[in-house]
Amino acid sequence: MAHLPLAADDAAELGAEELAAGLLPIREVARQTGVNPVTLRAWERRYGLIMPQRTAKGHRLYGQAHVERIQAILTWLNRGVAVSQIRDLLDHDAPPAGSADGPWESLRGELLEAVASLAERRLDDAYNRALALYPPQPLCRHLLLPLLAELEQRWQGQFGAALERVFLRSWLRSRLGARVYHNNRQLQGAPVLLANLSELPMEPGLWLCAWLLSDSQCPVEVLDWSVPAGELNLAVERLQPRAVLLYSSQALDSAQLRRQLPRLHAGCAVPLLLAGPAAQIHRDELAALERLALADSPLDAHHYLHQRGLFAAAP
């Protein structure tokens, strides 16, 4: 992983000896690993996973070994292992105990019950507990995407499904949108433009894409409702984004397939990506658009843009 230069306020916390030793403050470690400071402190206090050095004023300092240990923790989290089991895995090579689904089945159950009851506070509490311990990618892979898939199956033909769907989508957009807004205020440079191509507002997959990108230190601009076919090109012209990510959980209509996407493809000089079920549905039809990348899920979209080197802050 390429190390970014220390911000001036971070470097000011360190003395000459710390700088010479390559020690990093918590904000720089968060930038390099994608694990926010709240989660790093929770791993330290609750589980003893990371034990940084301290300055005379009590500021945490991390060395390269700490950064590598954090990366190892992320590897286990992405495999679905509970954070409470990881210390034994790292320190003693012990096999993970308990359910193969780790903590996720229980967490999904809490969220499902809260959605069924339209209980916003319970939904907040369960989500916030998970967010304090797990970075966005494991949360997306093991909690939120499986939760959405399970709910979509449950909602087929069920009375009250529309109410639950609107409740959850409103809640999810509110929570993820707040994180995106907070991150955007601290980031500079050209954004990734995310646009909803479906007829459904508040697409959960679109907001999951925005959240993952935003937490990777990438500014984002989200168009949550579909815009007229020709105006996406206008958005690209005015925003000058570093990439364009289109999302739809529905099949695209003929106008989008025959006019909107080809026009955008022809006029877009930056990476262009279609994500979500629409990418699976229209994979063969879109093969002629050679510069249009396809991603089945928000995690695939995040991986593609990461591979293109688009997360470093633009000048």
TrEMBL record:
Entries under PROSITE patterns matching the protein: HTH_MERR_2
Domain HTH merR-type, chain residue ranges per copy: 23-92
KW Plastid (keyword) present: no
A Pfam family matched in the record: MerR_1
Keyword Lipid metabolism in annotation: no
Alphabetic keyword roster: Transcription, Transcription regulation
Protein name (Swiss-Prot/TrEMBL): MerR family transcriptional regulator
Organism: Geopseudomonas aromaticivorans
Taxonomy of the source species: Bacteria, Pseudomonadati, Pseudomonadota, Gammaproteobacteria, Pseudomonadales
